[in-house]
Amino acid sequence: MNAPHTHSSLAIDWSTQGIVDRRNRFYSASQRKFVPYKDPLIIKRGRGQYLWDEQDRKYIDLLGMNLCISVGHAHPQVVKAASEQVAELTHCTTMFYHPVPAQYAEELAGTMPAGHDWVVHFTNSGAEAIDLALLMARSHTGNIDMLALASSYHGATFGAQSVTGIAGFRHSVPQLGGVTFVPEPNQYRGVHGEGVEPYLKEIDRAIATSTSGRLAGMIIEPVQGYGGIVPIPGGYIAGAFERVRAAGGLCIIDEVQAGVGRTGEAFWSFESHGVVPDIVVVAKGVGNGIPLGAVIAKRDVAESMADKFLFHTYGANPVACAAGRAVLNVMREERLQENARAVGGALRTRLEDLKERHSIIGDVRGRGLMLAIELVKNRATKEPAPEETLAVFEETRRNGLVASRSGPFRNVIRMCPPLCLAMADVDDVVDRFERSFAAASVR
User: Is the pLDDT of residue 406 over 60?
Assistant: First the structure.
């Protein structure tokens, strides 16, 4: 675990100040906001569910590098698959044929609900895949209007921003038109409180008043990620699909964060809702840190784009697809979906205990290894506590945890570790949280 980090002959300056100075000097301002801590955290290496910084301090990774690491940092099978492929052929444009992407497409399609004809279009990232899904829905239906949920996050590209319902991710430029937001069925602080029917009526109202009456589709995260780990309650997605299809639209599910066994209930989080989407967007965990995304669609939907030229330069890259194949294999062999359910359940129970000791914790929520605690100034009013959240968050880093702060009010501490997080880690994680709350002087 503590073997020295090796590099190629290309010199790398691993001094803390050198790394910080170069990034500050040469990174564009557009990347400046995406830094979570007051003092930069420099990551040197990772193994499994653990990380080490440039000073060899060890951390428990509760973020999975923004949910990209699914089966664990530097997993031997993924490293071997990618290394062998990069040594044989680093890239093959989709103009030409190669067996690895095609076999991976077959295997990905095999994870989808049976009885449907699924096809795959590979992209470089989740945001690109979201853009393609929007284009595909509008091309197939001939309609323009899209519905999206408030507090949703679908990516930072121009198209993905337009269906993202958090102001902090939307730039001050005209967004892609034809998008209407409806209230998300947040069972903790949603505008209608608990329940499903009032939120479904909002869809009816939006179709009747904010669209032409005919939809291209609706996009939903079964568990909202950057929105603060907000699980969509049972019955909502099925009800939304019924309404969207009645208005001529397609049903798009964004599995970029909640997919690949993370919720523990199913391989894809939409499966727990008893629905079959028309389009599924995947990325992040499918590549275990290797850039890889895909749109998985029913064949008749994808065929609507057959007459136009469209490709993504590194989409279907054989190295990325080799890594993706290895991820699917590791998920099966190591039963990581089952591990997410068991370990995530144990961690959630301990977080509920933490809530009993700290009144500032208003809510504990999530599924599997996609969990969050929301901090509030007052449990009765649910007034967000962003300053206190930041104080606790900074202390978690000092106590050897890597997590993230999210939600529309930045008052949610989000935990989405690699799916190999062990039962032996649970008490350690909660103990470090306990110390962090104490050091931040909040209760």
Answer: yes
Q: How many residues does the chain have?
A: 443
pTM: 0.95
**DSSP secondary structure string for all residues of 347-373:** HHHHHHHHHHH-TTEEEEEEETTEEEE
Give the contacts of 103 (CB within 8 A, at least 6 positions apart).
325
Q: How far is CA 135 from CA 272, 277, 318, in A?
A: 27, 16, 25
Helix (H, G, I), strand (E, B) or coil at 32: coil
CA pair distance 115, 284, nearest whole angstrom? 27
How big is the CA angle at 148 (ends 145 and 153), to the nearest 5 degrees? Answer: 135
Q: What would the pLDDT profile of 23-60 be if each residue is shown by its tens digit?
A: 999 999 988 878 888 999 999 999 999 999 999 999 99
Its sign, for the CA torsion 114, 295, 62, 236, is negative
Strands 361-367 and 43-47: unpaired
Which residue type, as a one-letter code, is found at position 17?
Answer: Q
Whether the CA torsion 330, 333, 334, 338 is positive or negative: it is positive
In this prediction, residue 89 carries a pLDDT of 98
Measure the CA dihedral 353/358/359/363, to 10°.
-50
